[in-house]
Design brief:
Layout (H helix, E strand, L loop, with lengths): L1 H18 E6 L2 H4 E5 L5 E3 L4 E6 L5 E5 L3 E11 L8 E8 L7 E7 L8 E7 L8 E3 L10 E7 L3 E6 L2 E7 L15 E8 L19 E16 L2 E2 L18 H13 L1 E4 L13 H11 L1
Antiparallel strand pairs: 1-15, 2-5, 3-4, 4-15, 5-14, 6-11, 6-15, 7-8, 7-14, 8-9, 9-10, 10-17, 11-12, 12-13, 15-16
């Protein structure tokens, strides 16, 4: 009996360690593929740096070779400097199909000296409309900063340099869809959206400043890969490092409150013009939690 138990325990550890991918990819060729841009995306510095560029003809983009179903994803980005009005640097997880799931960071450029807008959204079953937008407490074009997505069965948390800026909880119990069934790849792209990106489209892209360049380094995925129709997240592997059940502690909740009070510039749960018939269901839960 004891030997059987030990064998099962050993197999559990082996299977978990095989399926949970801990990828400290200082090798972009190993973990990503360039998907579009006709040479405008480049992997440099012995595969440790990836750059995307945008000009009047085209932008560029890449995606991860692996698909993930839950995980903690980190990437360091240095955004387009100077007059970046009209440009969008998108960094997001997305599944396939018409009823796709998606977890979005989008960085909306601006005129020199004006702050970037960090646009976040969560899609489930092809429906988003859950936007929150923020300014940052630093200039994201001077140096690299870490942008992270924690995605587990209970919540999605967006982080900037380890500080949570947004939490989207699993509220399926009250009928709110939550991304939990579809594996997603990590994507990023740099493209022009000057019809809406900067001040609602009032400020257009200055193409004399092209090429616009965004830079990436130090990708890390502590995550479960989709393999042969299953995900290691279902095995509760001890290799997951805690992210599979991670939640915000008191200090993190205080940081989240600080960001949302000081730097949030748009919240769909406060947009009465957009939702004259009443806010989405999750908004009432969020308001009640803030009153506690």
């Amino acid at each position: 009996m004891a030997s059987s138990y030990c064998l099962v325990f050993l197999l559990t550890i082996i299977i978990g360690s095989l399926m949970v991918v801990i990828s400290s990819a200082n090798n972009f060729n190993q973990d990503f593929e360039i998907t579009w841009g006709e040479g405008r995306a480049k992997i440099l510095n012995n595969n440790q740096l990836l750059i995307l560029s945008l000009d009047r003809i085209s932008g560029s983009g890449f995606q991860s070779k692996n698909e993930y179903l839950f995980g903690k994803i980190d990437m360091q980005l240095k955004l387009v400097p100077g007059n970046s009005a009209g440009t969008v640097t998108a960094y997001y997880l997305s599944s396939k199909g018409s009823a796709w799931d998606e977890i979005d960071f989008e960085f909306l450029g601006n005129l020199s000296g004006d702050p970037y807008t960090v646009h976040t959204n969560v899609y489930s079953q092809g429906k988003g409309d859950r936007e929150q937008q923020f300014h940052l407490w630093f200039d994201p074009t001077i140096d690299f900063h870490t942008y992270s997505i924690l995605w587990n069965p209970q919540r999605i948390v967006f982080y900037v340099d380890g500080t949570p800026i947004r939490e989207f909880k699993n509220l399926e119990s009250i009928g709110v869809p939550f991304p939990k069934d579809k594996p997603m790849r990590l994507h990023s792209s740099l493209w022009s959206a000057d019809d809406w990106a900067t001040r609602g489209g009032l400020v257009k892209t200055d193409w004399t400043k092209a090429p616009f360049i965004a830079s990436y380094r130090n990708f890390n995925a502590n995550a479960c890969v989709w393999s042969s129709g299953t995900s290691s997240c279902t095995s509760k592997s001890p290799s997951s490092g805690g992210w599979l059940s991670q939640e915000l502690d008191l200090a993190s909740k205080q940081k989240l409150k600080w960001v949302q009070e000081k730097f949030m510039i748009y919240n769909y749960c406060r947009d009465t013009k957009r939702f004259p018939q009443g806010f989405p269901q999750e908004c009432s839960v969020l308001r009640n939690q803030k009153k506690l």
